[in-house]
Amino acid sequence: EKVAEALGDGDPNEVLAELENIPVRRQDMATLKPGQELNDEVINYFMKLLARREESKATPPSCAFMQTNFYSVLAEGFGGYNYNAVANWTRGTKRTKSTDVFSKDLIIIPIHGYRHWTLAVINMKQKRFEYFDSLQNEPGMVLNNLRRWLEDEALDKQKNFDTSGWPEVVWKKECPRQK
C-alpha cells in the first residue's frame, strides 16, 4: 500500500522521505516505475541507506559510498580531471563525518552518463578497479580518473600508497543487461 501510494497521484513535489538532507519527492519515486529513468535523488538516497546499513554491521566488506555527482565533478575541468573539486568530499564537515577511504574494502561510485547509470568500484581489498555497465560499454577514462583520484587522495591524506600494479576489470558478461 505504501509503495502504491508513493507511486500514485499526488503533489509531485511532496517529500515522501528524507535522509541526511537528501529528500525524495513523489516525482523522484516515479522514476522507479517500469520504463522510467532513475534520477540522482533516488540513487543518492539509496547510497545513504546502504551507508547507514554499513555503519550498523560488524562484518565485511566495509564500504564507502560516493554521491552521484562525485565522478562528474571529478571529471570536470582541464583535461577531464580535477582533484581539487572533490578534495574536501572525504574530509567531512560539521554535518558529515570524514571518510577514510583507505580503511574500506570497497569504494562504491555511481556514475551517470548520457541517460544511463553505471557503477565503478575501487576494490581496496582485492587491489583492483572495477566497472559495471549493463549496456556493456567501455569505461573510457573512468577507471584512469579514479586511479588518479585515489593516488591524489593518498597524497592529500599523507599516506604512502601505490596503485601501479592494480588491474582494471570491466564486468560485461557478469553484469545483468538493461532494457
Structural class: alpha/beta
Range of helix content: 25-40%
Assign an overall shape: globular
Number of helices: 5
Report the span from N to C terminus.
Answer: 27 Å
Order of secondary-structure elements: HEEHHEHEEEHE
Structure description:
The model has no long low-confidence stretch (mean pLDDT 87). It contains five helices and seven strands. Helix content is 26%, strand content 21%. With 179 residues, the chain is of the alpha/beta class. α4 (70-74) links the parallel β3 and β4.
What is this structure's SSE topology?
Blueprint: H1 2-7, E1 15-19, E2 22-25, H2 26-29, H3 40-56, E3 63-65, H4 70-74, E4 106-113, E5 116-123, E6 128-132, H5 142-156, E7 168-171
Parallel strand pairs: 3-4, 6-7
Antiparallel strand pairs: 1-2, 4-5, 5-6
Give a nutshell description of this structure.
The chain is of the alpha/beta class.
Using brief descriptors, characterize the structure shown:
179 residues; alpha/beta; five-stranded mixed sheet; two-stranded antiparallel sheet; 5 helices; 7 strands; 26% helix; globular
